[in-house]
Amino acid sequence: MLERRSPLNASGDEIVIESITADHIRLYLAQVMKKSSRATAQRRLFAIKAFFGHLEKVSGIPNPAAMMRSPKIDKRLPSFLSEKDAEVLLEDPVTDGDAASARNHAMLEVLYSSGLRVSELTALNWINVDEEVGMITVRAGKGNKDRLVPVGEPALDALRRWRSMMPVPSGPNGPVFTNLRGKRITTRSVEMILAKTLERSGVGTRISPRHPGDARAFESRHDTALHSRQHQPAQGSARASPSARLISVEPRPLEVFWIRRTK
User: Fold this and answer.
1) Among residues 133, 218, 230, 254, which is most buried (max CB within 10 A)?
2) CATH superfamily of the 83-262 domain
3) What H or E segment, with its residue span, contains residue 129?
């Protein structure tokens, strides 16, 4: 920006920083947004503000960007699984006597049925699963808050099968999902399992596990089921905006399918 759009001195060979105005910066950002995203322009403005903020502190030069507002970033609808894709994914066969296969299927069912984030899934202990009322207690979830989340019978059946086949049995305070050595499974491992399952089922080219640490890896299903403000508490979101965005996704058929899977 300083090289291309800033005022020069009388000889034209030196930039006069004191002469840079907010209009120069706006012109520069407009040029950036012609070739790059609004997010890029936002980062550039942040750097400009930091630069002039430093000059203001050390030299007293007024900051022309101080009152400038960042460009709004476009809100994109998240990718989501269609009803057909969800059915294909959840019908991934469980190999008889294969503990890993039973575990992977249980993870898929729980993620689909409850809308948990992957980090919350890996943190589950058996004591957090109430089979009688069909609820899961999420401890220190999003925003470091506890919440209750409903879970359907297909997911509970898958959990019972996995528990009966665990290579290393886990007590009430032990992890629900473990590796085959009995250690709590990591979010990275879940991400890899989901990626392989998505690819094997044929839907991997349309949606992929994302952001395992912040539990976005399977939020595509979460997006289809929790599509309005009334589901905000189940997501654990402190603000309505993450849920409100999903209203744009056609909800009716997906809602019916989600209800069917949780019965």
Assistant:
1) 218
2) Intergrase catalytic core (1.10.443.10)
3) strand 129-130
